[in-house]
Write a structure and sequence with these properties.
The chain is α+β, with helices and mostly antiparallel strands and 183 residues long. It has two helices and twelve strands, in the order H-E-E-E-E-E-E-E-E-E-E-E-E-H. A hairpin with a 2-residue loop joins strand 7 (83-89) and strand 8.
Length: 183
């Protein structure tokens, strides 16, 4: 009965392969040099609809992501009104959050979304103002370059890994069926 240990090893290998194929991997990136930019008339502060904070990262091994978590700390918040913000990842809207008057501490919104593919091996995120603050009602800046404002991106399982898992499963079932019918 040499085949029984091989069968057990095959099942263990299949379980390990399925766990690795389904595992999601996360990476945390810091807002800051060299790709960090602010678009607005009073850079580095924003307050008008369309103003944004933006950064880009090259992340080897990530072909798409399906979750993002922001950890933001504001450098200056003199807002007298709520500023509504949109999160755009590689051109796709993935969520919204608000910056309230006086918010200075860390804000940690998390977004789950349909997978967004990497462009040129990387990801660009824009945190864009969706409304304008009335003149004289303040502005807000993002603290960056010191590990206080980050984004954590979570990859989606690779389609190739899932196809490999399916192929190995079919091969295993076919081999088992052949052994059963040959008895």
């Amino acid at each position: 009965m040499v085949f029984k240990p091989l069968r057990v090893m095959f099942v263990i290998g299949l379980v390990l392969l399925s766990m690795s194929a389904m595992a999601q991997v996360s990476v945390t990136e810091v807002f800051g040099a060299p790709n960090y930019t602010v678009s607005g008339p009073d850079s580095p502060y924003i307050y008008n609809a369309g103003d944004y904070f933006q950064d880009s990262w090259s992340i080897p091994g990530f072909s798409s992501v399906s979750e993002a978590s922001l950890n933001l700390t504001y450098d200056s918040n003199t807002l007298g009104e709520t500023l509504y913000m949109g999160v755009v990842l590689n051109g796709s809207d993935v969520g919204n959050f608000v910056i309230n008057p006086g918010d200075t501490g860390t804000v940690v919104p998390t977004f789950d979304f349909t997978p967004v593919a990497a462009v040129g091996g990387g990801f660009t995120v824009q945190l864009m103002a969706l409304n304008s603050i009335d003149p004289g009602y303040g502005q807000v800046g993002l603290l960056y370059n010191d590990l206080t404002s980050t984004i954590t991106l979570t990859s989606t399982p690779e389609p190739g890994s899932l196809a490999l898992l399916a192929g190995v499963s079919v091969f295993g079932l076919a081999t088992r069926r052949r052994k059963i019918t040959s008895r």
